[in-house]
């Protein structure tokens, strides 16, 4: 844009993701991310008073990894930059933030299966480890979350096959 002249033509490519339909001009519908969260991006617990912060000891390293994953804002930059229109960085971050903490373990298998299935159902592509998602993420979400999501999904698949 620094060398743009009045007579130049600007071509803007729409997002590749079928799951992010264009609303108008450059606005896209990112409600597909909401559907992935609805599929399992939460913890089912009875609420009450705030628990003591030290009731469940969690190492600083694990707490930081969980917080880093939870920093995802669902902007869709990962999907837009991915040549496969993959939502695996978003989904991996949402699965990781719970998989790392003891509170997320009881529903881990159901969460991984449901969220990955919903992502596939919405026609997002698969990860081919190009790392464009990680490079474009404004919150610097690591692709290690994709590996964690794959491990959680694999463990959940093994567990459901055994039962």
Characterization of this structure:
The structure is a single chain. This protein is mainly alpha-helical and 163 residues long. The protein has one domain: Fumarate Reductase Iron-sulfur Protein, Chain B, domain 2 (Orthogonal Bundle), CATH 1.10.1060. The protein is built from seven helices and two strands. It has a two-stranded antiparallel sheet. A hairpin with a 2-residue loop joins strand 1 and strand 2 (27-28). Helix 4 runs antiparallel to helix 5. The chain is elongated. 30% of the residues are buried. The mean pLDDT is 89.
Q: What percent of residues are in strands? A: under 5%
Low-confidence stretches: none
Evaluate the radius of gyration: 18 Å
Give the termini distance in whole angstroms.
58 Å
- Count of structural domains: 1
- The name of the CATH architecture is Orthogonal Bundle
Count of DSSP strands: 2
What is the CATH topology assignment? Fumarate Reductase Iron-sulfur Protein, Chain B, domain 2
CATH top level?
Answer: Mainly Alpha
- Tell me the overall shape: elongated
Query: Considering DSSP H and I runs of 4 or more, what fraction of the residues is helical?
Result: 40-55%
Largest sheet: 2 strands, antiparallel
Biggest sheet: strands side by side, in what order? 1-2
Q: What is the H/E string? A: EEHHHHHHH
How many individual helices?
7
Mean pLDDT reading: 89
What structural class do you assign from the helix and strand content? mainly alpha
